[in-house]
Write a structure and sequence with these properties.
By secondary structure, the protein is an alpha+beta fold. Helices cover 58% and strands 11% of the residues. The chain contains 20 helices and 11 strands. Strand 4 and strand 5 form a beta hairpin. The longest helix is centred in the middle third of the chain and has 37 residues. Bound molecules: flavin-adenine dinucleotide. The site of flavin-adenine dinucleotide has 22 residues, from strand 3, strand 5 and helix 14.
C-alpha cells in the first residue's frame, strides 16, 4: 500500500508566508469568515480523509481497475464508500456558492482539498474533479432554470458531471466534431453522436450523471465557430430535481489504458438523447475556453501531486537503502555500506523532486489566489486584467508542471532502482498515472501554441510584459534593500532571475519578428518557449520562497530546519534546474528549416 502524508507544513508556508492569504481574504466581504481556524480545520480533516481513506485504495484501485458490463461500470472496491464519505463531509461543494448547497469558501481553500485528494488517489479524484468542470460551466453559462435544477445536486455530489468533447476523429481540433443537435420543437434538442475518452462518463458512484456535451446544430457554420454546448442528463430530471426516465445515453465500453485505471474512461453513445442548450447557439467554443482555464489548473496540479507522492516514497527509501561508500568518505561506519542518499546523483534526483513539488505547489496556489480575486472583482477592466494574467499563466502551469511532474515521478522510480520498476512500491503506478497529464486538457504542444501564439504574440505581449514587470519589481526591491547581509543572501537569486526575465521578453519579440517571415517559427519554438517560461516562472517562486524563508530564519523559529531546507532547495533550483533555460534559448531560436525541410517521404 502506498502511504501518503499530507504536506501540511508546506501548504501553510505557501498560504501564509508566501501568499499572505489571510490579508487577501480580509479584502473581500465574502471571505471575512475565512480565518486560520477554518483553514486549519480543512487541512486537518481533509488530510485525515485522504491519508486514511483514499491512499489505502490507490494501489488496489490500480490493480482492480474499472469493469464494464452491459453498459454499466463498476469502480474498484472501496471507491463507492470513499465517495459517500467525501460527499457526507461536504467536500465537493467546499468552494462553490452557498445558494447551491456549497460552503462558499475561496477557490484557494478548495485547492487544498484538490491537492490532497489528488495526491492520495488521482484516479478516484477524477470523479469529483470532472464534476467540478461541469459545475463551473453551469455557474458561468447555464440559465437560471438549469442552475436551479442541476447545481444543488452536483454541488452536494449526489450527482456527478462530465465534459464530453472528444470524438474518434478529433480531440485537439474540436472544430471537427460531428455530434448533431436537432431542435425537438419543445425547446429541447435531440443529441446524436459518439463521444470517446470521457472521464467518469459512466460509473456506480452516483444516481445520475450530467453530461456537458459539445454538438453541432443543423444550420451551424463549419469549424469551431459552429459548435454549441448542451446539458444531457443520463437520467432525465423533473422540474423539482427528482429523477425521471432514463435518457438515451449509453456507455458502449470503457478503455483499457496505461494508467489511472481506477478512473473510468468511457465511450458514450448519444442516440436522440434529450439535451438542453447552454448559453447561446454556436457559443460552445467560447464557453469551453472559460471552462478550460480552470480545468487546466486542475490538471496542472496532477504534476505537483505525482511529484509529491513519488518524493514521499523515494525519500525514506534513499535513507534506508545501503549501497557502497560515499566518495568523500564513509558516512555510516556502523553499517556495511552507506545509504544511497549520500550519493550526489541520488541527491540530485531527490532535490529535483522536492524543487518541482514545492515550486509547483507555490505556482498553483498563486493561481488559486488569482481565481479568488476574479470571483470577487466587480470592476470590468480590473476583471479583464486578472483574467488576462490568469489566461497567460494557465498554459505555463498546465504544460510545464505536467511535464515536470512526469520527470519527477521518473526520478522517484530511478531512486528505487529495479525496485521502482516493480509494482510493490507504487512508483511505476505513479509514472503510468501521471503520463496522461501531458495529454488531456490539451497536449503540451497545444499549451505551447496557446501561450506563445494566443496569449503573447496575438496580444502584443502585454501579459508577458506585465508579469515580467511584477518579477522585476520583486528583483528590484530585493537588490536595493539596504543592508549587506540581505543583499548577499538574495543576490544569487536576483541576478539570474532578472537576466532570465529580460531574455524571456527578448526571445518572445525575436520569435514574433522571425514569424513574420516564416509562420512555422511559432510552432517550432512554442514548446521550448513554454518550458523556458515555466523554468523562469518557477525561479520567481523559488526566489520569493527563499526570501520569505530567510526572513523567518532571522526570527529563529522552532522549525528552523524547514526554512533552511527551503533556502537550500532554492539554491539547488537556481544552480541545477534554471540553467536548462540556456539550452532552451538556443533550440527555440533555431531556424524552423531543420524541422520543415525534410519531406514526409524522407522521414
Ligand atoms: C484517459 C483519458 C481521459 C480523457 N478524458 C477526457 C474527457 O473527460 N473529456 C473529453 O472530451 N476528452 C477526454 N480525453 C481526450 C483528450 O483530451 C484528448 O485525447 C487530447 O485532447 C488529445 O486529442 P487527441 O487524442 O485526439 O490527439 P490529436 O488531437 O490527434 O493530437 C495528436 C498529436 O498531434 C499534436 N497536434 C495536433 N494538432 C496540432 C497542432 N495544430 N499543432 C501542433 N501539434 C498538434 C498533438 O499535440 C498530439 O501530440 C481523455 C483522454 C484520455 C486518454
Amino acid at each position: 500500500m502506498t502511504e501518503y502524508t499530507a504536506p501540511i507544513e508546506d501548504i501553510k508556508f505557501v498560504m501564509e508566508d508566501l501568499l499572505d492569504i489571510y490579508s487577501h481574504y480580509q479584502k473581500y466581504p465574502d471571505f471575512q469568515d475565512v480565518t486560520p481556524d477554518v483553514v486549519d480545520m480543512v487541512l486537518t480533516e481533509c488530510a485525515r480523509f485522504c491519508e486514511t481513506e483514499l491512499a489505502p485504495i490507490n494501489q488496489s484501485g490500480d490493480r482492480e481497475g474499472c469493469s464494464w458490463r452491459d453498459g454499466n461500470v463498476t469502480t474498484p472496491s472501496g471507491f463507492k464508500e470513499a465517495y459517500q464519505h467525501y460527499i457526507d463531509g461536504g467536500w465537493q461543494g467546499i468552494s462553490h456558492p452557498v445558494e447551491y448547497g456549497g460552503q462558499g469558501l475561496p477557490v484557494s481553500v478548495g485547492l487544498i482539498r484538490t491537492e490532497m485528494i489528488s495526491t492520495a488517489n488521482w484516479s478516484w479524484s477524477m470523479y469529483p474533479g470532472l464534476s467540478v468542470g461541469a459545475m463551473n460551466t453551469l455557474i458561468e453559462h447555464g440559465s437560471e432554470v438549469q442552475k436551479k435544477t442541476y447545481l444543488t445536486k452536483l454541488t452536494q455530489g449526489v450527482w456527478s458531471g462530465t465534459m464530453c468533447l472528444t470524438e474518434a476523429q478529433c480531440g485537439t481540433d474540436l472544430g471537427l466534431i460531428r455530434t448533431r443537435a436537432v431542435p425537438a420543437g419543445d425547446g429541447s434538442y435531440e443529441i446524436t453522436g459518439s463521444k470517446i475518452f470521457i472521464s467518469a462518463g459512466e460509473h456506480d458512484l452516483t444516481e445520475n450523471i450530467i453530461h456537458i456535451v459539445l454538438a453541432r446544430l443543423p444550420d451551424a457554420p463549419k469549424g469551431s465557430q459552429g459548435i454549441s454546448l448542451f446539458l444531457v442528463p443520463k437520467v432525465l430530471v423533473n422540474e423539482d430535481s427528482s429523477l425521471g426516465d432514463a435518457n438515451s445515453v449509453s456507455c458502449g465500453s470503457i478503455e483499457e489504458k496505461m494508467g489511472i485505471k481506477g478512473s473510468s474512461t468511457a465511450v458514450l453513445n448519444f442516440d436522440n438523447a434529450k439535451g438542453f442548450l447552454i448559453g447561446k447557439k454556436n457559443g460552445g467554443l467560447e464557453y469551453m475556453f472559460t471552462y478550460m482555464n480552470t480545468a487546466r489548473i486542475g490538471v496542472a496540479i496532477q504534476g505537483v501531486c505525482s511529484s509529491e507522492l513519488a518524493y514521499q516514497i523515494s525519500l525514506p527509501y534513499a535513507k534506508e537503502r545501503l549501497s557502497m561508500r560515499s566518495l568523500s568518505g564513509t558516512k555510516n561506519p556502523d553499517k556495511i555500506a552507506d545509504p544511497i542518499i549520500v550519493h550526489p546523483d541520488v541527491r540530485k534526483m531527490l532535490l529535483t523532486q522536492k524543487a518541482i513539488s514545492e515550486g509547483g505547489r507555490a505556482m498553483v496556489y498563486y493561481a488559486g489566489k488569482m481565481v479568488d480575486e476574479l470571483s470577487q472583482c466587480n470592476d470590468e477592466s480590473e476583471k479583464k486584467n486578472i483574467n488576462d494574467k490568469f489566461g497567460f499563466f494557465t498554459p505555463i502551469l498546465k504544460g510545464f508542471l505536467t511535464e515536470l511532474g512526469f520527470e519527477s515521478a521518473n526520478n522517484g522510480l530511478q531512486v528505487l532502482g529495479g525496485h521502482g520498476y516493480i509494482r510493490e512500491w507504487g512508483l511505476e503506478q505513479i509514472v503510468r498515472d501521471v503520463r496522461i497529464s501531458t495529454l488531456y486538457e490539451g497536449t503540451t504542444g497545444i499549451q505551447g501554441l496557446d501561450l506563445l501564439g494566443r496569449k503573447i504574440l496575438l496580444q502584443g505581449g502585454r501579459s508577458l510584459r506585465d508579469f515580467s514587470k511584477e518579477i522585476l519589481r520583486f528583483c528590484g526591491k530585493h537588490s536595493l534593500i539596504s543592508g549587506n547581509e540581505h543583499k548577499r543572501r538574495m543576490h544569487k537569486f536576483i541576478w539570474p532571475l532578472s537576466k532570465a526575465v529580460v531574455n524571456w521578453q527578448r526571445y518572445a519579440l525575436k520569435i514574433g519578428l522571425k514569424a513574420r517571415k516564416d509562420r512555422d517559427m511559432v510552432g517550432s519554438a512554442s514548446v521550448d518557449f513554454l518550458m523556458y517560461s515555466g523554468y523562469v516562472t518557477m525561479a520567481y517562486f523559488w526566489a520569493m520562497m527563499a526570501q520569505k524563508a530567510n526572513e523567518k530564519i532571522a526570527e529563529k523559529p522552532d522549525n528552523m530546519e524547514f526554512y533552511r531546507a527551503k533556502v537550500r532547495t532554492a539554491e539547488f533550483y537556481f544552480k541545477r534546474i534554471l540553467p536548462r533555460t540556456r539550452a532552451l534559448a538556443k533550440t527555440m531560436m533555431a531556424d524552423p528549416g531543420t524541422l520543415m525541410q525534410m519531406t514526409n517521404e524522407q522521414f
